[in-house]
Structure formats: structure tokens, C-alpha cells
């Protein structure tokens, strides 16, 4: 735990020199205590509840329905057996985004552009709930630090790098596919 936090401080200052946005995003990725994780979920739940109230008061039915579905997913996750697993509220939101993206593609394949546009507007609402994502440059710096720390030498060590990156970057990147591509570039160089 101490190694992760000192590494976070070191990398945060490195990123802060080039891009100030990286500093806040990287610190968010290192909330390692269980109490901080619970508080983050509670804060996100409270933010969603407040958004539901404001959207209901302003008469935005689509936004209200999307926010209620996200809240239902989070509550279901908490009450089900999946609560024992390490699934965050932001992961549930990403899951909802992925579902809607797949639906939009299916609607377009069926020549239902109107329904595809509705799905895309719901995706925008869900994206507004997620924290800002790290840039590719910050991901590259973090992967470089991980590579040096574990002594990775080539593409054969991609699995080791991705294992560490997955634990360190889980909430601050929307797609581990992007992290994988950056890691492949760095390890093949």
C-alpha cells in the first residue's frame, strides 16, 4: 500500500509538470482503502439521486428514466451476490453504456435511426456520470513506470504489465483496450 501511494505521488508530480489534468485523475485511481471506495460509491449514488430529483423537477423524462435504471443496477449489484466481487458503480455505468452502444448498432442494422439516436442520447447522459478519463499520454507514462518497476523487457511481459495496470488504473480509464494498445507500443519499442 505504501509503495502504491508513493508511486502515485511520484507519478502525479511527473504528470502535473506536463498536464495538470492527469494529477487529479491519477490520484483518484489510487483510492486503496475500503472506506474510500465505499465513500466513492455513496457519493456517486448521492449524485445520481440528486440528478434524478433535478431531472424530475425539470421534466426531463428520458434523463430521469436513464438515471433510475442506473440506480436500479447499482442497488441490484449491492444486494446480489456480486457485491462480494470488486465491482464499482462506475463499472456498472460503463456496462450500461456498452449495452446501449450495442443496442444502437442493432437499431441501425434494422434501419431504426430514431431508436439509435435515443440510445446515443442515453449514452451521453451516462457518460456525464463518469469521472473524466485519463489521456493517452498519462497512460503511456504510467505504463512506462510499471514497465520499469517490474522489469518488463518485451511483448512477452505484456500480461504482467496488464495485471499491474488493471489494478492501478481500473477506475480512471474507460477501456482497458486502450491501455493494452499503449502497453504493446511501449513494450515493442
Automatic annotation (TrEMBL):
The keyword Mitochondrion applies. Pfam families: YqeY. One of its GO terms (molecular function) is carbon-nitrogen ligase activity, with glutamine as amido-N-donor. The keyword Mitochondrion applies. Keywords: Mitochondrion. GO terms for cellular component: mitochondrion. It is found in: Mitochondrion. SUPFAM superfamilies: GatB/YqeY motif. Belongs to the AIM41 family. This is Altered inheritance of mitochondria protein 41. It comes from Batrachochytrium dendrobatidis (strain JEL423). The lineage of its organism: Eukaryota, Fungi, Fungi incertae sedis, Chytridiomycota, Chytridiomycota incertae sedis.
